[in-house]
Design a protein that fits this description.
The protein has 121 residues and is α+β, with helices and mostly antiparallel strands. The protein is built from three helices and five strands.
């Protein structure tokens, strides 16, 4: 199985848990690696802005002496965006439906993050 096929499987498995509208794997500097983002969204922008958010949060928490954040969650009336690290080279980003429960999603994101870390090294 190729790297792209493995990433595709990981993201499709995430989508199957329900409540996830779009997902992406990006490099730490915001370059898109793979996504399941639909045509109405610009996947490259989604990846870049998510990396920027995580980088800003990491800087802020480090300055405050609170360590590195495990994930960033942005909530609005239209849904949630969750960004988390997937090793030293990548990020996992998902966009959820407005009423999606976070419990199962966060558990599955942690598992997917570990799988991506293994795939990308």
């Amino acid at each position: 199985m190729t790297t792209v096929e493995m990433l595709e499987k990981i993201l499709n498995d995430l989508k199957n848990i329900g409540g996830i509208e779009a997902s992406a794997v990006a490099s730490r500097d915001g370059l898109l690696i793979y996504s399941t983002v639909s045509g109405k969204l610009h996947a490259e922008t989604f990846a870049a802005m998510s990396a920027t958010m995580l980088g800003a949060a990491e800087t802020a928490t480090a300055e405050l002496g609170k360590g590195i954040p495990e994930r960033i969650i942005v909530e609005s009336k239209d849904g949630k965006i969750i960004t988390m690290g997937a090793g030293s080279k990548a990020l996992l980003v998902v966009m959820t439906e407005p009423d999606a429960g976070l419990g199962l999603i966060l558990i599955e994101l942690a598992k997917a993050s570990e799988k991506i870390k293994q795939v990308l090294g």
